[in-house]
Specification:
heterodimer, A: about 450 residues, alpha/beta, Urease, subunit C, domain 1, TIM Barrel, 5-stranded parallel sheet, 14 helices, about 30% helix, globular, B: about 325 residues, Rossmann fold, 2 domains, 4-stranded parallel sheet, about 15% strand, disordered N terminus
Chain lengths: ~450, ~325
């Protein structure tokens, strides 16, 4: 394979503390050379991908997405989900185990690995179940799942209601140094809930989901993490109270990491007005006050990473009464554009944002799959190029994902992925990008 | 209005004496009262008066909606609302068809949109819809052009009920502005309460909500909601009230843990003669029906001299005639 020079962009790699204008040479799937300014590579022959005006950074890593395969192929497949990831600048995505059958045994792990090797265009890392069948009754065979290659355990979608079992999970998983990811929701408080509980739920006559439903479980999980010394990762944090609980837990040295989604960082409960089922998501879109706390949590590293919780559904799934629509937003292809609004408004620093999408999730995943989230020489050539200022209009029909369920349809976003390189291969490029021989 | 070709019956040639100022009417659908201006509500009052005059004639029928097809689509059982709409439409000479559907038998609302598309293809000009899920009529309006009248959606809204309640108040009171209204009962789960809060406050009526805190919706006092007072003590809430509305208490609220017992609810919140005596002597008593006599309201009050429960039902037909008339006008434009 010919060498490829990504030429003349702003290279940002938080893992190495690099933020320079320069060029990146990749060959045989690896990062070969990084040159500052006008430096030219030592190799004589290569193709050139011009990157003037673009940001060059490690490929994004999504610790939380739903690929729906096996079981719900009408919503998404590994083929379409990884294409959507590539369009969104993601080169590594971690798929949640709420498939059918669920990812609670090594056979399903092997299926995911085989499917992603044959049909996927980016790296898919599976997350195994905490409990058999995601029923919350007994532990899945976590050791076997770990050997098969899962990078974490979660019953995502189903919170772990049984405190005893959550304790065992956090304790048992220490043997493999893998995190347990909990979807924090006290179901006794959320039964029938459709959206954030507050002014808008009252106005619309929809049953509310109070902040406390999340915070109670966050508090419990933190206490159990402290008790066991296990690694806890809190999925999709949405409330001011949760951020405060996690902040205090980190001060105490509890082993906890946390994620927030682009939609919870940028959209409020008001999106539900008009009964837009594409704004129905669990946990629900909250308030401006919560968003402010989430951003603060990102900026002081209380919240470690940004993950999409990409949850594709078919149009028919969402074309119904609000109460009957499934929860979820298709998020891979709008993540960067949404998040860049926070950079443009000055609320989040660009380099910090990239860290939350690359280096930080790589740290949670660990080295099981080699060094991820870095442009260090010798690392897998997973590279994302994006234009921070290019404006574009969200057109769900143009999504690679089968899930067109986004509340952002028709909206203008500023910041767009222009090319995604996975293991040295150009797996997505915008039409305006032309690769030329030197 | 079409008056030609109707020479078969001289009574049909008599138009309702409706006001001329229908240009302030902005609605193609009637989904809730939250998007009604004060002027529009007053137009509904004027038009309703004309319809009441029609109802007082020996032949209670005008040709206003002749050639129009109205379909009632009810996903929830209802006797009075459905019958009220049906009579209203027939009094205006519309063709009326009724469809009952079961929301539980349709797992996916795609069939909701499909059902409405079918009704439209069958020639429906107006669909009167009741649905157990909040917002169902809103979702439908994105896909069809027929007018939708919301006859109650989940906990959300019941606009025609609120408008007939307002109409009934103004028949008794010289001015609405500054009146004090008290709504007692299961506010959280009540579409009647929600729509009434919008309508009452739009007309300048001060609203006090009275219920156990577990039946009060979240976020009151927020920017997106009309201003209301909250007083959980029924005696204090009723002090000086001009009108009192009690709501039906669903017995399953107790099962859901929102109330310790129906017995205690009766002790704390039943509208009795003794409690009603704290309101103004000419205070009106409303109930949207059906009434649980002896639960939220004592039989003596429900049938007492201050009760306007039967007037609400009578006015319901006239108000719905007025609304259908106004909708038909907007369709012509």
């Amino acid at each position: 394979m010919k060498h490829l020079l990504i030429q003349g962009g702003r290279i940002i790699d938080p893992s190495q503390g690099i933020d320079v204008t320069g060029s990146l040479l990749i060959a045989e799937g690896k990062i070969l050379w990084l040159g500052k300014g006008e430096a030219t590579p030592p190799q004589p022959d290569y193709d050139v991908l011009p990157a003037q005006g673009l940001i060059i950074c490690p490929g994004f890593i999504d610790l939380h997405c739903h690929l729906r395969q096996p079981g719900f192929e009408e919503k998404e497949t590994i083929a379409t989900g990884t294409k959507a990831a590539a369009r969104g600048g993601f080169t590594t995505i971690c798929c949640m185990p709420n498939t059918s059958p669920p990812l609670d045994n090594q056979t399903v792990v092997e299926f995911i690995k085989a499917k992603s090797a044959s049909e996927g265009v980016v790296r898919v890392l599976p997350i195994g179940c905490i409990s058999k069948g995601r029923r919350g009754e007994e532990l899945a065979e976590m050791g076997e799942l770990a050997s098969a290659g899962v990078i974490a355990f979660s019953d995502d979608g189903e919170p772990m209601l049984n405190s005893h079992l959550m304790r065992q999970a956090l304790d048992y998983s220490r043997a493999f140094d893998l995190p347990v990811i909990d979807h924090c929701e006290d179901k006794t408080l959320t039964a029938g809930g459709q959206m954030n509980e507050g002014v808008i739920s009252t106005r619309l006559g929809l049953r509310g989901i109070p902040n406390a439903a999340e915070e109670i479980m966050v508090a419990r999980d933190l206490a159990l993490a402290q008790l066991t010394g296990g690694r806890l990762h809190i999925a999709h944090v949405t409330t001011e109270g949760s951020v405060e609980l996690i902040r205090r837990a980190k001060e105490k040295g509890i082993k906890v990491s946390a994620e927030v989604t682009p939609h919870h960082l940028t959209l409020t409960e008001e999106r539900v007005i008009g009964y837009d089922t594409n704004a129905k998501v669990n946990p629900p879109l909250r308030t401006k006050r919560d968003i402010k706390a989430l951003i603060q949590g990102l900026n002081d590293n209380t919240i470690d990473i940004i993950a999409t919780d990409h949850a594709p559904h078919t149009e028919a799934d969402k074309l119904c009464e609000f109460d009957l629509a499934p929860f979820g937003i298709s998020g891979l292809e709008t993540a960067l554009g949404s998040l860049m609004s926070l950079v443009h408004s000055g609320e989040i620093d660009l380099v910090a944002l990239i860290a939350k999408l690359t280096q930080e999730p790589a740290q949670i995943i660990g080295n099981k799959y080699g060094g991820l989230g870095t442009l260090a020489t010798g690392a897998s050539a997973d590279v994302t190029l994006f234009d921070p200022n290019l404006e574009w209009v969200v057109e769900p029909k143009a999504f690679a994902s089968k899930g067109r369920n986004t509340p952002l349809a028709g909206e203008r976003l500023k910041g767009r992925v222009m090319a995604t390189i996975f293991q040295g291969n150009l797996v997505y490029k915008d039409d305006s990008i032309k690769v030329k021989a030197k | 209005m079409r008056t030609t070709g109707q020479k078969d019956n001289p009574a049909l040639q008599i138009k309702p004496k409706v006001p001329e100022t229908t240009s302030i009417w902005q609605h193609h659908h009637i989904l809730d009262v939250d998007d009604f201006s004060r002027e529009e509500i007053e137009l509904v009052f004027h038009t309703t008066r004309a319809m009441k005059e029609v109802l007082s004639r020996p032949i209670k029928r005008v040709p206003t909606l002749r050639g129009k097809t109205l379909i009632t689509l009810f996903y929830e059982p209802s006797t009075r609302t459905r019958l009220s709409f049906e009579l209203a439409a027939k009094n205006l000479s519309a063709d009326v068809a009724n469809l009952s559907a079961s929301a539980s038998s349709v797992a996916k609302g795609e069939s909701l949109v499909d059902t409405l598309s079918t009704l439209q293809a069958l020639g429906a000009d107006i669909v009167v819809m009741r649905h157990p899920h909040s917002g169902a009529p809103y979702i439908v309006t994105k896909y069809i052009t027929a007018s939708i009248v919301n006859a109650g959606d989940g906990w959300h809204a019941h606009p025609t009920q609120a408008l007939l309640d307002l109409y009934t108040i103004q028949e008794h009171k010289e001015s609405l502005k500054g009146l004090k209204a008290v709504i007692i009962g299961d506010i959280m789960h009540s579409r009647v309460a929600r729509s009434n809060i919008w309508g009452l406050t739009t007309m300048g009526i001060e609203v006090t909500l009275c219920c156990p805190p577990t039946l009060l919706p979240a976020g009151l006092g927020g920017e997106q909601l009309p201003p209301v007072n909250v007083e959980p003590n029924i005696e204090l809430a009723l002090d000086g009230a001009d009108m009192v509305m009690t709501l039906r208490l669903q017995l399953e609220r107790q099962q859901a843990g929102l109330l310790p017992s129906i017995r205690e609810y009766i002790q704390l919140y039943q509208l009795t003669e003794a409690r009603l005596a704290r309101a103004k002597p000419d205070a009106l008593v409303f109930h949207p029906g059906p009434v649980n006599e002896g639960v939220e309201i004592s039989p003596a009050v429900a049938h007492g001299p201050q009760s306007v429960i039967n007037e609400q039902v009578t006015n319901g037909v006239a108000v719905r005639m007025a609304l259908l008339y106004l909708l038909a006008g907007s369709q012509k434009q």
